[in-house]
Design goal:
There is one protein chain. Helix 6 (about 160-170) packs across helix 7 (about 170-180) and helix 13 (about 315-330) packs parallel to helix 14 (about 350-365). Strands 1-5-6-7-8-9-10 form a seven-stranded parallel beta sheet. A three-stranded antiparallel beta sheet has the order 2-3-4, with no helix packed on it. The model has no long low-confidence stretch (mean pLDDT about 95). The chain has a single domain (about 5-80, about 115-365), classed as TIM Barrel (Alpha-Beta Barrel), CATH 3.20.20.210. It contains 14 helices and ten strands. Helix 11 links the parallel strand 8 and strand 9. It is an alpha/beta fold. The two termini are about 15 Å apart.
């Protein structure tokens, strides 16, 4: 069973059980560069229009060599757009957000739609051109090289809600959602339409899945009420998935959603998502047995290994115990791909990355 077959079987697209639980992980720049040097393999970086997505869709050759069953690809910055850094280290990205590098992730300093009030304000905003030169050059190369042997995910993370608040500002957007301001739903519709165009281009090139990414939860609860989600966001995701399924009925819609979001998972299933990621551990409603009992017939799960404390600071014994639990519970009868809940940062040592992969393979056999 090759990696592609392993993931398709784990996601219940092929009959039976995989030979083992498939493995996936993302690496920050420092870890990617470390393993590139150690393995003697070039780390190839695809700069995404939203900077943090870069590390989801880069260094695939490194991750495969280490043991990943998955290739993740996506859109890159256009050949026609040049990032120019100011003396203060900030820059404008393709969305015209003013950015700076934070300690871990990028930060938005200036929001291009911070003064949005009306539908006209949204109509007048120019998203990056999905068809600009070079947008999918790396995706085409990766798909051509790895499609036969590996499961290929097309990443459109920072999709609707997250892209909306990066354009407007989180505080303003949340207040205006509650006030049902005129521009809010048109903003989400515009974000959905843009990312639908990106997703269709990735489907056309041969990806197996489309990975949405929007965070609706905090460490304790939802950011927005279920009613607001249902009225303002749910129809947009539903339309996107319908469009993707029309383009390829076999495409697998995946949702990455951080935080305590169990309360929304029935809605998320109704929208059409088939895989739930990252199954963030340590938040209310996300105990492995609860997730498997309540939602195991509705989703395949992907993730569930804590990268906030366990991977950087736990002992090898702690990590081993957690991996055994997640595989035995979430992976029972299939339906699970094991992974850290987010990108591994440089507080996780290279040795711990290798230990994670070793333990996943040791205990993942069916």
């Amino acid at each position: 069973m090759n990696s592609r077959e392993r993931v398709l079987t784990a996601f219940k697209k092929l009959p039976g059980l995989p030979d083992r639980v498939p493995i996936q992980f993302d690496l920050c720049r420092q870890l990617s560069d470390h393993f590139a040097e150690k393995l003697g393999i070039a780390a190839l970086y695809t700069e995404n229009p939203y900077e943090d997505v870069t590390y989801r869709i880069s260094a695939n050759e490194i991750r495969i060599a280490l043991g990943s069953d998955v290739v993740v690809t996506g859109a890159s910055v256009s050949d026609d757009y040049k990032i120019v850094k100011n003396a203060d280290g900030t820059w404008l990205n393709e969305y015209q957000m003013r950015m700076r590098r934070g300690d871990i992730y990028v930060e938005v300093l200036e929001y291009p739609l911070s003064n949005a009030q009306s539908k006209a304000d949204i109509n007048n905003f120019c998203f990056p051109d999905p068809n600009s030169s070079g947008r999918f050059r790396d995706a085409e190369a990766l798909i051509a090289k790895f499609k036969k042997d590996y499961f290929i995910i097309g990443d459109i993370e920072v999709t609707v809600f997250s892209l909306g608040h990066q354009l407007v500002g989180m505080e303003k957007l949340l207040v205006d959602m509650m006030l049902e301001a005129e521009y809010v739903v048109p903003l989400f519709e515009a974000c959905g339409e843009y990312q639908t165009k990106i997703g269709l281009e990735l489907i056309k090139r041969g990806v197996d899945a489309i990975w949405f990414g929007d965070d609706f939860g905090t460490q304790m609860s939802l950011i927005i009420s279920p009613e607001t989600f249902r009225s303002q966001l749910k129809p947009i995701y539903k339309k996107m998935i319908q469009t993707f399924k029309e383009a390829n009925p076999d495409i697998i819609p995946i949702l990455h959603c951080d935080g305590a979001v169990a309360e929304l998972l029935d809605d998320i299933k109704e929208i059409g998502f088939e895989v739930f990621n990252p199954v963030q551990p340590g938040v209310p409603g996300h105990l492995p047995q609860d997730m498997k009992d309540r939602f195991g017939e509705k989703f395949a799960f992907w993730g569930a290994i804590d990268q906030q404390e366990l991977l950087p600071n736990g002992t090898d014994e702690d990590l081993e115990k957690d991996i055994i639990e997640k595989i035995s519970v979430l992976g029972k009868d299939g339906g699970y791909m094991i992974a850290p809940a987010h990108i591994l940062q440089n507080d996780v040592s290279p040795e711990r990355v290798l230990k994670f992969i070793e333990l996943c393979k040791k205990y993942g056999n069916y």
